[in-house]
Amino acid sequence: MPSLGADMTEGTLIEWLVGPGDRVRKGDIVAVVDTTKSAIEVECFESGVVDRLLVETGATVPVGTSLAVISPAGEEAAGLTPEAPEAVSRKQPASPPAAATTPPPPSASPEAGQSGGTVAATPLVRHQAEEAGLDLAAVHGTGPGGRVTRADVSREAAAERPPSTAVKEEPAGRGRVRATPLARRTAAETGIELAAVTGTGRDGAVRVADVRAAAAKRARTAPESVAGQREALLARPEAAGAGPHKAETGRDAATTVHDAAARLTAMRRTTADLMTRSKREIPHYYLSTTVDLGRAVAWLRERNRELPVPKRLVTTAVLLKATALAARHVPQLNGFWTPDGFGGEAAVHLGVAVSLRGGGLVAPAIRDAADLPLPEVMARLRDLVARARTGRLRASETASATITVTNLGDQGVEAVFGVIYPPQVALVGLGKVVERPWAVNGLLGVRPVVTATLSADHRASDGSTGARFLAALDSWAQKPEEL
Amino acid sequence: MSPDSTSNTTYREELREAMREALARDERVFLMGEDVGRYGGAFGVSLGLIDQFGPDRVRDTPLSESAFVGAGIGAAIAGMRPIVEIMTVNFSLLALDQILNNAATLLHMSGGQVAVPLVIRMTTGAGRRLAAQHSHSLEGWYAHIPGIRVLAPATLEDARYMLASALADPDPVLIFEHGSLYNLSGQLDTGCGPVDLDTAAIRRPGNDVSLITHGGSLGKTLQAADRLAEEGIDAEVIDLRTLRPLDDTTILGSVRRTHRAVVIDEGWRTAGLSAEVATRIAEQGFYDLDAPVERVCGAEVPTPYAAQLEEAALPQTDGIAAAARRTVG
Amino acid sequence: MTARAAKPQSAKARSGKDGKAARHASRSKKAATGKRQDPSRAHAGEPAPEPSEAAGHRHGLLRDMLLIRRFEERCVELYSGGKVRGFVHLCIGEEAVSVGVHRALTPQDAVVSTYREHGHALARGLPAEALFAEMLGRVTGCSRGRGGSMHLFDASHRFYGGHAIVAGGLPVATGLALADRMRGTDRLVCCLFGDGAMAEGEFHETANLAALWDLPLLFVCENNLYAMGTPLAREHANIDLAARAASYGMTAWVVDGMDVLAVERAAHKAVRAVRDGVGPVFLEMRTYRFRAHSMYDPDLYRDKAEVEHWKERDPIALLLGRVRAEDGFTDADEERLEEEVALQLDQALAAAEQGELEPVSDLLKFVSTPTGEVS
C-alpha cells in the first residue's frame, strides 16, 4: 500500500486492474485505492509478471503492506516472499478497526468509578454529577434510552446530601491567603505565617511591605530566637533545637530581620517549602505508644560488653530496625502518595531525619533497612549522619526514602509529632529513652521506655492501620535478638 | 546641514540625516518607496535627498507594496543594502507576504545560504486623526515573527543612530516610526555614539514601579512618571527600543528592583506585545512581583476619527499614572 | 553532457573500469567545449552559444530531459515508500522548458523558481544527490533539509528557490534584477512561474515594476493549462497570457513548450534582448504536466484522454524521434543513455541516503545570522 500523502495511514483496495499472469511495466497503473481523500491510482515500480495478489478488493490495509508479488519477467515465482500472503491474511480479519466492533472489555471493578464510558449522559449532566459527588453509574436514568438527565442527578443528589456536602466542605474550609508572589517568598524566607499578616493591598492582598512589617514587629516583641521559633512553626518541631538565629535588637529591626532572611540557606528554603506543602496537602493523623525497652537495653548492654566502642550498638539502631520491619509488616504505610492514589513500595528505604548545623534538615535513606542486620543498620546510620553533616550525600540517598524516622531523643524531647515528607505517607517520631515506673504482670518496676509517635497520611491509611504498625514496632522492639 | 549638538533639531530631521549619512557612506545603500523622491516622503522624512543622491538611489516606486518590498529583498540578496520605506504600517499588510514568507524566512528555508540584509522603515501609530486605515500600531505583529528584528526609535538619538546599526545587521530589520514623533524636537546628544540593537533603555530610573513602553507612548509615560513623582511614587521608565528580540535582562532587572510593572502599548491588548512583555515578567519574575502586572493599551476598536474618541482609544498620561498607582497603592 | 563529446566519451565510459570516472571525464570535456559550466566564461559579458543543430547538442538536451524525468520517477517511488514527505510537485511532461531555458543562461545569471522546480534545479546544474538529500531531509541536502521539495536553494548556482507562495518569488526576482541594473552588470534574472501566478497581484505589480524600470528580467511562464485543478479558462478572463504581459509594455512571445529546440531558440533570443537592455521579456511556454498536481492528487479535474493526447507530444519522445530520424540514434544508444542516467541516479540516491540528519540541537540555527541571533 503506497503512502500517497502525509496523513495517509491506510488505504482500501477498490479495484485490481491486473491479475495473476498479467505482464506489467514500470509505471503501469495496477490498482485503485481509496484513501480518506479520494480514489487514487496505484502504479508499480517494477516490470514483470504479476505472480499473485496479496490483498483482496475491499480490504483496508496499512501503508507499507505488500499488495502483490511481481516476478521479473521470465522467472519463476518460486521463492519470492513466501511469508507475505500469510502475513496479510492474518492481518485481514484484524484490520477493520477492532475497537469499533469488539465490545469493550468488562471492567475489573465496576465500583471503581469508571462509569463514564458506559452511562449515557451529556457533558453538562456529567459535570453536575461530578459537582455533586455522584457516581453516574449508580443514578437511574429516566431519559430516552435510559439516558441520565439533570433531573435524575438533582434527585439523587438531594437524597445523598449528607455525604456529598461533607466532601465539599473540607476544601472550602482551607482558605488560601491572598498574597503577592513576592510576599509569599519573603514570608517563607523570614518565617512569617502569611495567614497571620493583615494585607493592605487590593482586596486585602498581603504584600511584601505587610510581611516586612510583621517581621519587624516580631523582632521587637521577641528578640531572642525569633527565626528559630518561627521556622519551627512552619517547618518541623525539631528545628527549634537546631540553633536559632539571633536577631539583633534595637537599630532598625525590619532591616535586621530582612538581612537575617537573606542569610538563610537554600536548604532552609527547601525544607520550608516541603513542610509547608506537607501541612497543606496531607491530612495528618497521629498515634502514640510507649515502648518498653527493658529487654532491648539489657540485650544491648550484654552484646556491647565484648565490642570495641566504634562497633557498639545504640537503642536507636534497634528502634530503626524495628520500624523498618513494622513498615514491611504494614505496607500501607510504606510508599508514596501520587495523584493516582497510594502506591506501596516493596523495599523499605528508611529515611532518617538529620538536622544540619547550619539550619535545615535532610532525611537520607538507609536503603533496604528491613533486610540489613542490626550492626549494618548501625554502621549505615553513623555513616549517613556523618556524611549528611558534611554535605556528602548521594542523590539516591536523599530522594529514595519510603518512610522516615525522626529521633529527637538525644535532645531531651519526650515525644515527637513530626511532619510527613511528601510524597511519603508516614513518619515515626522517637523521643528520649527515659526510665519510668512500669507494670509487668501486675508487678511494678522501673523500666527504660520510649514514646514512638506515628504521623500518617489519612488519605492513604486509617487509624487502625497505624495502630497495627505501632504494635508491630513494639513487638519487634521486644525481640532484639531477632533483629 | 547636520545640526550640531547645541541647535534644536527634530526626529524627522534626524531620520533624514541618518539616511543621508548612510547613502553618502555606502554605495550599496539606496532608498526606495512611494513618493520618497520628488515628493520628499509622505511625512517629509526624505525631503531633499533626491537632489543629493539622484533618482536611482532615492527611488520612487509605483503603489505596489508587495513588488517594491520584494524588490528590496531581492536587491539585498544580491548584495545591495536597500532601505525600503512603506508609507504606513497599514499599507505594509499589502507586503506581508514578502516580509513574512520571504524576508524573514529565506535564510532558514535555504539552510543558511540566503541572507536578507534589508531595512524597512514605516510609520506606525495613531494620534493624528488619520482614522482606521492609517493609524494602527501593528509592530507587535511583526515582533511575533522569528527572522526579523523590530525597532521602535522613540528619541532623537535613536532616530539618528539606529539606522546605521540596522544597516549593519545581516538580517531584515523593520523600523517603526511613530507618526506623532516626527515633530519631536530638542537637542541631539551627539555623544551617545553608535547604538546597539539588543538593549532596552532606562529613560528614567526609579524604585517603586517599572513603566515599560516604546515608541509613541514614551513621552506620555515620562509625563506620567513626573506626575507620580509629585505624589511620592518613584517610577522607572523603560523604553524597549527593540521589540524583537526583547531585552529580558533590562526588563526583569528593573522589575526585580521595583517589584511592580505597568506595560504601556498603543497596540491592542489582546494577544499583543504588552501580553508578551507581561508574560515574560510572570514567567521569569513571578516571585519578585508584589502586585499584578498592569497593562495600558489601545482600546479594542479600529482607530476612530473624532478627536475625543481617538484620544480615548489610546493610552494617555492619566491612565498610565492610574495604573501605576494601582500597583503601588 | 554535451553532444559533441558524447560519442567518443560514452565509448570511453564503456571501456573504462569505473563509470563514475568516465562521467567525470565527460563533464570536464563538456566544460572544455565551452558549454554551460565553463569557468572561462565566468563573466557575464559573453552571449550564450547559439543553439546548435548538431546531433551532439541534441543528444545533450535529450540526456538532460531524461535525467529530470527519471529523477522525478524516483521521487514518486521515494514518496510512495514514505521516505519523502510534504508536498511534492512533479514536472514530468514539462522537461523541455527546464532544459531549453537554462541552456540560454550563464552561471552569473540568477534563477528564481516555484515549488515545481526539480527540473529547473537539475537543469541549472544542482547535483541530483543534493536534491535527493534535501527531499530525504538530510543535512547534506541543498537546503540542509530545511526546505524540502518545494524549497530547493543553491546560492553557489545563484538558484534562489524554490518558492511555494504562488507568485511570491516574482518580486524577489525583480530585486535581484534591480541590483544588477544599479550596478551596471549585464547579468539577468530568470524567473519561472505558472499560469496560476498570473492571476496573483504580485505578478502584475512585478510586471509593471520591471517594465517601468527596464529591469533585466526574463519572465518564463510555464502555462500547463491548470492552476492546481482549475483550467486556464476558469481562472483568467483573457487566456492570452502573452498578450496580458505585453500590455505592461514588455516583449512577449508564445513558445511551444513541448519542443525543447523551440524553447531553447526562444530563450536565447529573449536573453539576448534582455542583455541588450530592452527591459524584461516574457515567454509563455505552452506545456503540460502529465502527472497530477501533487503526489496526493486524484487528478479528477481533467480527462484521461486529454492527458493521453498531450503525451503524444511528450518532449522526450519528440526529440527522440528527431534524433532517430536525423542523427541515426539507435535503440542501443537509447538503452545506453538510460543506463547512464540510471547509474547516475543510483549513485546520487545512494549517496543522499548516506547523508546525516541535522541534530535537533541545531534547530534554532538559520533563523538569523549568528551575530544577531534572536533569543
Automatic annotation (TrEMBL), chain B:
<dbReference type="InterPro" id="IPR033248">
    <property type="entry name" value="Transketolase_C"/>
</dbReference>
<dbReference type="InterPro" id="IPR009014">
    <property type="entry name" value="Transketo_C/PFOR_II"/>
</dbReference>
<feature type="domain" description="Transketolase-like pyrimidine-binding">
    <location>
        <begin position="9"/>
        <end position="184"/>
    </location>
</feature>
<dbReference type="GO" id="GO:0004739">
    <property type="term" value="F:pyruvate dehydrogenase (acetyl-transferring) activity"/>
</dbReference>
<dbReference type="Pfam" id="PF02779">
    <property type="entry name" value="Transket_pyr"/>
</dbReference>
<dbReference type="Pfam" id="PF02780">
    <property type="entry name" value="Transketolase_C"/>
</dbReference>
<dbReference type="InterPro" id="IPR005475">
    <property type="entry name" value="Transketolase-like_Pyr-bd"/>
</dbReference>
<keyword id="KW-0560">Oxidoreductase</keyword>
<keyword id="KW-0670">Pyruvate</keyword>
<keyword id="KW-0786">Thiamine pyrophosphate</keyword>
<dbReference type="InterPro" id="IPR029061">
    <property type="entry name" value="THDP-binding"/>
</dbReference>
<dbReference type="GO" id="GO:0000287">
    <property type="term" value="F:magnesium ion binding"/>
</dbReference>
<protein>
    <submittedName>
        <fullName>Pyruvate dehydrogenase E1 component subunit beta</fullName>
        <ecNumber>1.2.4.1</ecNumber>
    </submittedName>
</protein>
From TrEMBL, chain C:
<dbReference type="GO" id="GO:0016746">
    <property type="term" value="F:acyltransferase activity"/>
</dbReference>
<comment type="function">
    <text>The pyruvate dehydrogenase complex catalyzes the overall conversion of pyruvate to acetyl-CoA and CO(2).</text>
</comment>
<keyword id="KW-0670">Pyruvate</keyword>
<feature type="region of interest" description="Disordered">
    <location>
        <begin position="1"/>
        <end position="57"/>
    </location>
</feature>
<dbReference type="GO" id="GO:0000287">
    <property type="term" value="F:magnesium ion binding"/>
</dbReference>
<feature type="domain" description="Dehydrogenase E1 component">
    <location>
        <begin position="64"/>
        <end position="355"/>
    </location>
</feature>
<comment type="subunit">
    <text>Heterodimer of an alpha and a beta chain.</text>
</comment>
<dbReference type="GO" id="GO:0006086">
    <property type="term" value="P:pyruvate decarboxylation to acetyl-CoA"/>
</dbReference>
<keyword id="KW-0786">Thiamine pyrophosphate</keyword>
<feature type="compositionally biased region" description="Basic and acidic residues">
    <location>
        <begin position="35"/>
        <end position="44"/>
    </location>
</feature>
<dbReference type="InterPro" id="IPR017597">
    <property type="entry name" value="Pyrv_DH_E1_asu_subgrp-y"/>
</dbReference>
<keyword id="KW-0808">Transferase</keyword>
<dbReference type="Pfam" id="PF00676">
    <property type="entry name" value="E1_dh"/>
</dbReference>
<dbReference type="InterPro" id="IPR050642">
    <property type="entry name" value="PDH_E1_Alpha_Subunit"/>
</dbReference>
<feature type="compositionally biased region" description="Low complexity">
    <location>
        <begin position="45"/>
        <end position="54"/>
    </location>
</feature>
<keyword id="KW-0012">Acyltransferase</keyword>
<dbReference type="GO" id="GO:0004739">
    <property type="term" value="F:pyruvate dehydrogenase (acetyl-transferring) activity"/>
</dbReference>
<protein>
    <recommendedName>
        <fullName>Pyruvate dehydrogenase E1 component subunit alpha</fullName>
        <ecNumber>1.2.4.1</ecNumber>
    </recommendedName>
</protein>
<feature type="compositionally biased region" description="Basic residues">
    <location>
        <begin position="22"/>
        <end position="33"/>
    </location>
</feature>
<dbReference type="InterPro" id="IPR001017">
    <property type="entry name" value="DH_E1"/>
</dbReference>
<dbReference type="InterPro" id="IPR029061">
    <property type="entry name" value="THDP-binding"/>
</dbReference>
<keyword id="KW-0560">Oxidoreductase</keyword>
